[in-house]
Design goal:
- Helices cover about 40% and strands about 25% of the residues.
- The protein is built from three helices and seven strands.
- α1 runs antiparallel to α2.
């Protein structure tokens, strides 16, 4: 919660406590006119608090909010990590700070880029993703499923000094027994990726054979 909001709530609690104390004392002393005034103050304070809460909700609706999750559907047999802005404005200078880190296929702590800021800007409704590993790598009989955690740090404006800190937890538990759907697009992508790899290997071998033939001439 923002420091200004904490201070405002603290001041409201003090004023409300004082007003309640006055009402109780006037009730015990049977000072009915003062009691009526005290009750009116309390009613006003409750109305003001309701208005403040509504205003805060409207402010929060305009703030960026980053959703972080695993994607196992977009690519066959592969898992990616996705950042999606589900808030009300663009998020800037997004960084992932791991507590229990997610390790990628290269054995490194997962980052969208090697060092520094992961994503410089992410507009409302947009998402970015990065490859993590194949799905089978998360499921092993030798060890339980990992729980990954950390904090997303980002800003609501490009040069804002105020950071938004958002804790998160990730797990593949929900995918342990899920049915992995396959469509023509993902199947075509996977099969042609293997085909491209085979063509590259064939090209290398043909190049080697061509070099040997040239030397014999």
């Amino acid at each position: 919660m923002k420091k200004s909001r904490i201070l405002l709530i603290f001041m409201w609690i003090i004023i409300f406590s004082i007003s309640t104390g006055i009402v109780i004392s006037t009730l015990l002393l049977k000072q009915w006119n003062t009691l009526t005034a005290g009750l009116a103050i309390i009613a006003s304070l409750l109305t003001v608090y309701g208005s403040i809460r509504l205003n805060w909700r409207l402010e929060d609706a305009h703030e960026p909010y980053i959703n972080i999750y695993f994607d196992t559907k977009s690519h066959k047999y592969a898992t990616s990590l996705v950042l999606r802005n589900d808030g009300g404005s663009t998020a800037y200078n997004i960084e992932i700070h791991w507590d229990n880190p997610l390790i990628d296929s290269d054995g490194k702590i997962l980052k969208f880029i090697d060092e520094g800021i992961d994503v410089y800007s992410l507009p409302v409704g947009e998402k970015v993703s990065t490859y993590v590993n194949n799905i089978e790598s998360f499921f092993s009989e030798d060890k339980p499923l990992e729980i990954y955690s950390g904090n997303l740090i980002y800003h609501s404006t490009p040069r804002s000094k105020t950071k938004i800190k958002q804790p998160f937890i990730l797990s593949m538990h929900s995918f342990a027994k899920s049915i992995m759907t396959e469509n023509d697009q993902t199947s075509f992508y996977f099969e042609n990726r293997q085909l491209t790899k085979s063509v590259k290997e064939l090209k290398v071998e043909v190049s080697k054979l061509s070099s040997k033939l040239d030397k014999r001439k």
